Amino acid sequence: MEKNRSGWSGVENELPRARITRAWGWQIPTWRKSGEFSDRRYIHFTPGLIWQLLRFHPDVVIANEMGFRTVVALAYGTLARKPVWVWWGGTLHTERNTGPARRALRALVSRWARRWISYGMSSTEYLRSLGIARENILEIQNAVNEQLFAAVATGSPASEAGTALVYRTRPVVLCVSALIPRKGIDCLLHAAIALQRGGREFSLVVVGSGPDGPALEQLAQDMRLKNVHFHAERRPEEMPAVYRSADVFVFPTLEDVWGMVANEAVLSGLPVLCSKYAGCAGELFDAGNIFDPQDPEDFKEKLRAALDGRIAKSDPRRLRTTPMLAGDLIRALEESLPSSAGRAPDEAMKMMENSAR
User: Is the predicted pLDDT of residue 339 greater than 90, yes or no?
Assistant: First the structure.
């Protein structure tokens, strides 16, 4: 697990019927410069994956992204004559500053792999730019556990574990995010103070943790932003109550391959302002709900419209549920198996279906 992915801890508890093995290897930390901000990333070098594939001898492999692990998976698939699916989430925007070494590796992988899974329309667009045929791409979406948020949308108590946050000044603008440079929280603070200086009253709530937390709180204090509240990240089962506390959700990211907090806000029945730089933007939201966080005037006016109730709630039917996505994935995996291998065992299929519920 990456050191900056604390939210992924405990995945074994979420998949009790799956066997999870961590192949030995190294995580090499790097800094990637992307426009005006830098972001911590990791290069994964996991030679232990070779032994695990030979030991497990799977009938089908799903490899994430286009790095060392995917090359190993493709080599195994070629030698063992097994189908390999490459799961990809990057967009034209997130990959705009990819260096020559990675571009060369992706050119190799895009010519080698025959089966692809994309996060959605924006990821498919990037894969098509590499010359990958549309018929070779299974387009799905990034998804969350929608059962956690079903109670919010119906107006019943959202969570037994969480308590709704109460603020004296309404409306309440909510942002749920890691506190790192590429999430655009500083842009949100500047848009908020611009409206407050014009006489608009509202509460701004930021829920999340990260290395930029102290600096962002200091920025809000220096700007004399009123009614701003920072809260540390909450457990998933507490989040429905957090969303229930708000009137508007804002996702000001400067770069995201999707943005699952947008899914959560839609499932919670909130009007959503979504950055144009989120992979999910065009797929989940209308033009009136999309803004450019790097354009201060556009951000301010869209936030004003949201506070005035002039943006629409997003249609949850644009979201594909986890059972729907699991069904698409299961069918695609079955169809890719060689006829001599038959279909995947019923027990394995049931495990995947149950994991999606």
Answer: no
Q: What angle do CA 17, 21, 22 make, to 5 degrees?
A: 145
SS3 of residue 45 by DSSP: strand
| Cis amide prior to 100 (ω within 30 degrees) | no
User: Which residue do the tokens 């574990």 mark?
Assistant: 161
First-to-last C-alpha distance (Å) of the chain: 24
Residue 166, CA atoms < 13 Å, CB-side half-sphere: 1
| Model pLDDT, residue 30 | 78
Domains in the chain: ranges and CATH: 6-143+320-356 (3.40.50), 146-317 (3.40.50.2000)
Report the pLDDT value the prediction gives residue 353, as an integer from 0 to 100: 41
276-307: per-residue pLDDT in tens?
A: 999 999 999 999 999 999 999 999 999 999 99
- HSE-up of residue 245 (Cα within 13 Å, Cβ side): 24
Number of residues assigned to the chain: 357
Specify the 3-state DSSP secondary structure of 170: coil
With cut-offs at 50, 70 and 90, classify the pLDDT of residue 349. Answer: very low
Average pLDDT, the chain: 88
3-state secondary structure 187-235: HHHHHHHHHHHCCCCCEEEEECCCCCHHHHHHHHHHCCCCCEEEECCCC
Q: What is the sign, positive or negative, of the torsion defined by CA atoms of 121, 124, 126, 129?
A: negative
Q: Which two tokens stand for residue 350?
A: 């049931």
> What is the phi-psi region of residue 48: left when phi exceeds 0, alpha when psi lies from -120 to 50, beta otherwise?
alpha
Residue 333: is its pLDDT beyond 80? yes
CA distance 277 to 344: 38
DSSP at 68: H
**Cα 66–Cα 125–Cα 315 angle in degrees, nearest 5:** 115
Write down the pTM of the prediction: 0.88
Phi, psi torsion values for 31, nearest 5 degrees: -115, 125
pLDDT digits (tens, 9 = 90+) for 197-238: 999 999 999 999 999 999 999 999 999 999 999 999 999 889
CB 45 within 8 A of CB 68: yes
